[in-house]
């Protein structure tokens, strides 16, 4: 099965670099490019890619607004936001919008390829270099009303599901969660699927956001 990818960045050289990395992979095909968010909407509507790699800062329509519309109008096209270390506020908003993940622009080529495959397969992409810092940034000033509502929703989870959600939000992988809880990876995936279903979420990224907004995990907290 070939994974179709759309590239969205206002810098032509960035798009060239992304295309070069992805085009050598036998299971990935770049089906189009756009230089701003408005163009991206038309591109995705025409090509229906499996994955959209999109920059944040672009003219006419930025990547944040484009991501919101893509997630809403084209849920089958999974969005990965390309970011730099100085764009925490943008990424936090993109997480809330429901993107499937984000990746640093300076990430090694192999990470880019892995990210595309992971998201195309239905997974979420949490770059450990920035994820916890970004989420902590907007969870540090929570909306009390929202936190109360989120905390009440936690009651829908079993104690094991709550443990899995907590560890996910603390940055652990499925393999690490399985080892900590003495479970098989398949069981961890089953718990995650049930968590998403019960909370009305669609991605692991949204689950992490939920964990912080509900107070289940506090900024700076780590699993020990």
TrEMBL record:
Sites bearing 4-aspartylphosphate, chain numbering: 55
Domain (HTH luxR-type): residue spans on this chain: 150-215
Listed InterPro entries: CheY-like_superfamily, NreC/VraR/RcsB-like_REC, Sig_transdc_resp-reg_receiver, Tscrpt_reg_LuxR_C, WalR-like
Domain of life: Bacteria
Keyword Transcription regulation tagged: yes
Keywords annotated in UniProt: DNA-binding, Phosphoprotein, Transcription, Transcription regulation
Residues in Response regulatory domain copies: 4-120
CDD domains found in the cross-reference section: LuxR_C_like (cd06170), REC_NarL-like (cd17535)
Protein name: Response regulator transcription factor
Species per Swiss-Prot/TrEMBL record: Streptosporangium fragile
């Amino acid at each position: 099965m070939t994974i179709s990818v759309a590239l969205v960045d206002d810098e032509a050289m960035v798009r060239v670099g992304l295309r070069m990395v992805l085009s050598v992979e036998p299971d990935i095909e770049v089906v189009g490019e756009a230089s701003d968010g408005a163009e991206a909407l038309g591109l995705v509507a025409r090509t229906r890619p499996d994955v959209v790699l999109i920059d944040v800062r672009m003219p006419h329509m930025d990547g944040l607004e484009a991501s919101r519309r893509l997630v809403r109008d084209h849920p089958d096209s999974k969005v990965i936001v390309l970011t730099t270390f100085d764009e925490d506020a943008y990424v936090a908003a993109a997480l809330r919008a429901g993107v499937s993940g984000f990746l640093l622009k300076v990430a090694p080529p192999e990470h880019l390829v892995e990210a595309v495959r992971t998201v195309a397969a239905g997974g979420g992409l949490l770059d450990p270099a920035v994820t916890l810092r970004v989420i902590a940034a907007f969870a540090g000033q929570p909306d009390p009303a929202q936190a109360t509502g989120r905390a009440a929703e936690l009651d829908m989870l079993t104690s094991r599901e709550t443990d899995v959600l907590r560890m996910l939000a603390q940055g652990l992988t499925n393999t690490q969660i399985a080892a900590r809880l003495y479970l098989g990876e398949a069981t961890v995936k089953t718990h995650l699927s049930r968590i998403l279903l019960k909370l009305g979420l669609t991605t692991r990224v949204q689950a992490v956001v939920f964990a912080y907004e509900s107070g289940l995990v506090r900024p700076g907290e780590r699993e020990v």
